[in-house]
Specification:
The chain has a single domain (2-279), classed as 4-Layer Sandwich (Metallo-beta-lactamase, Chain A), CATH 3.60.15.10. It is 23% helix and 25% strand. It has helices spanning 46-57, 100-109, 185-192, 206-212, 220-230, 246-262, and strands at 2-7, 28-32, 38-41, 62-66, 90-94, 126-129, 137-139, 142-148, 156-162, 165-170, 197-201, 234-238, 268-271, 277-279. Strand 2 and strand 3 (38-41) form a beta hairpin. It is globular.
Length: 280
């Protein structure tokens, strides 16, 4: 698998000089399976550049779009995803146990008038909406299993497994407080156990979390401690707060590495960055 990050900012896009290194686009990941199949996670503003790149390399005309949840920062780039306007593209939309009509409504709502001049019905790509019904998806030999997120209004994280390599994506999940529908901490630990790569929500500092408890996000130190307990090999801090500049995120990584080394672990820790590619 090859994972490329097109957007890793949380809550709202935050372009500018202070975010030039880690980027200001909201959540969008590209996962290329070993046979070249394209799986896209979320349609934040990062999906615009992904779509432009797809047009340039003239790669696969079929893709899977996995949605974590319907909060705006994870869908707001969809109206600017150019392949959705082209009839040669086929987009298979999937999530956890959500009805297909819910998935269609999530995307269509991004183009509802008077907020956008083009309606969903005018898109020319072929859309296939389905629900995983909590089941494990199998795409070209890769197992993709959803898990409910501990987040207001719910949502789903995903675990990819292929030939013993494991990638887990858990954005928008809160480690410090339980939400309706969320799972006990132990179930999330089991889900992430021995992951080769864990990308985890790390939006807040400890001080910020005192003001934002219950909003559905974790601190970077809590994410590092969780990854240690799960035995992950690599941790990528994700969903950077729009107020955090590059220099802040650099400091957060240093503090996480210090925590990790203090506990005698060799786990790698870094911050997700736009344009970053990771191969498993």
């Amino acid at each position: 698998m090859r994972i490329k990050i097109w957007g890793c900012r949380g809550s709202i896009p935050s372009p500018g000089c202070a975010t030039r290194c880690y980027g200001g686009n909201t959540t969008c990941l590209e996962v290329r399976l070993d046979n070249g199949t394209l799986v896209v996670i979320d349609a934040g503003t990062g999906i615009r550049e992904l779509g432009n790149a797809m047009l340039k390399d003239r790669g696969p005309r079929e893709l899977y779009l996995l949605l974590t949840h319907a909060h705006w920062d994870h869908l707001q780039g969809f109206p600017f995803f150019v392949p959705a306007y082209m009839q040669e593209y086929s987009i298979r939309v999937r999530s956890g146990p959500l009805a297909r009509k819910s998935l269609e409504r999530f995307l269509a709502h991004q183009l509802d008038p008077p907020f956008f001049p083009v309606t969903f019905g005018e898109l020319k790509a072929h859309f296939d909406f389905d629900s995983a019904d909590g089941r494990e998806l199998s795409i070209d030999g890769t197992s993709i299993r959803p898990i409910v997120l501990n987040h207001p209004n719910g949502g789903y994280g995903y675990r990819f497994v292929f030939r013993g390599k494991k990638f887990v994506f858990l954005t928008d999940t809160e480690l410090g407080q339980e939400h309706p529908g969320g799972l006990p901490r132990g179930e999330y630990l089991d889900f992430c156990r021995n992951a080769d790569l864990l990308i985890h929500d790390a939006q807040y500092t400890e001080a910020e979390y005192q003001r934002s408890r219950g909003w559905g996000h974790s601190t970077y130190l809590a994410a590092a401690q969780f990854a240690l307990e799960a035995g992950a090999r690599r941790l990528a801090l994700f969903h950077h707060d729009p107020l955090h500049a590059d220099r802040d995120i650099d400091r957060f990584v240093r503090e996480c590495v210090h925590l990790i080394r203090r506990q005698g672990s060799r786990m790698s820790c870094f911050a997700a960055r736009e344009g970053m590619e990771i191969t498993l």
